[in-house]
Structures are given as C-alpha cells and as structure tokens.
Design goal:
mainly alpha; Rna Polymerase Sigma Factor, Chain: A; Arc Repressor Mutant, subunit A
C-alpha cells in the first residue's frame, strides 16, 4: 500500500490480486449477471485506487474493498432496473444447447424469484454472511450498518427463503374440500 501511495502505481495489482476472485464472486451474486459483475469489479478497483488514501489502515482492506463492491453493485442494479425490464436484464445469450438453456433459465428464474423476496439490505446481508461467509462484524462494516441490524436482516432473509423453498419443494398446496 505504501508503494502505491508513494507513486508506484504498478504495485496496486499486487495489493488487490488476492481479492479479485472474491470480489467477482460477490459482484456476480449481487448483480445476477457475469458481465455486470465484471463491470462492477473494474469499477470497484478504480474506486479503490482513487480513494486509497482515505482507507483506514486499522481496518480490514478486504472488507473495505468489498464495501466498495456492494455500493457499486447497488448502483448497477438500480441503473439496470431503470433501463430495462426484469426479463431483458436476465435474458440469456444465443443457445448452444436448447435443453441446457431452458434448464439454466429456469434455475436462474427460480433463484432470482427467491432473492427478489428479500429487501436489498436482506439480500446483501444474506449473500455476505451465507455465501461469502463473512462474520457479523465484517458484514456490518462492509454494508455500513450495526451488527444488530445484520442479525435482524439475516434472520428475516433466511425465514423468507426457507418459506419459499419449502413451498417450492412441497409443490402447490391442494385445496381441502
């Protein structure tokens, strides 16, 4: 970090290299789109480079970087929702295997349906805690809220997802005569 701040910009690559796959994975789960995830990753790195001087060295660099990624993804998702309908935003590219394309589309649709049940804060907390396996304090630092807020949102997210998934696994309820 000292090298980058002293003008050796090529050292930035070595500073962020360990976090690239984690960053891309989080961005992909938050945006639901690999191309947007790549864009978010690049934007995150640019912002990190631009604001490196403001980084508090007593805190985790990785969490600071992931916090930037969460904010970038929020912006991208908001822009996408304004620019296109849900179907257009998640449409697949040209199919190589029509059966596989249909399965992928159904899986993506089911996953997005489940995640759409969640508020944006619940979705962020769920992804960071359960998929990225961040602890409560790291998650709170990344998204800028209290640990109690993380616990509350995570509990709500898990409950909503469990209800949806149990309903999906049981199938449609039959009406009683």
């Amino acid at each position: 970090m000292e090298l980058v701040l002293s003008g050796h910009t090529e050292a930035f690559e070595a500073l962020v290299r360990p976090y690239r796959s984690c960053l891309l994975g989080l961005a992909h789960r938050l945006t639901g789109n690999i191309e947007e995830a790549k864009e978010a990753g690049q934007e995150t790195l640019l912002k990190a480079f631009r604001y490196l001087r403001s980084f508090d060295r007593e805190k985790s660099f990785k969490n600071w970087l992931l916090g930037i990624a969460v904010n970038v993804c929020r912006s991208l998702v908001r822009a996408r929702i304004k620019a296109a309908s849900f179907d257009q935003a998640f449409s697949a590219s040209a199919p190589d295997d029509p059966t596989r394309l249909l399965q992928d589309k159904e899986m993506r649709s089911h996953l997005m349906d489940c995640l759409e049940l969640l508020s944006s804060r619940e979705r962020e907390v769920f992804l960071l805690r359960d998929l990225e396996q961040r602890n409560i304090h790291e998650t709170a630092g990344i998204i800028g809220c209290s640990s109690l807020s993380v616990r509350v949102h995570l509990s709500r997210a898990r409950k909503k997802l469990a209800e949806r998934l149990s309903g999906t696994l049981r199938g449609p309820r039959e009406e009683k005569p």
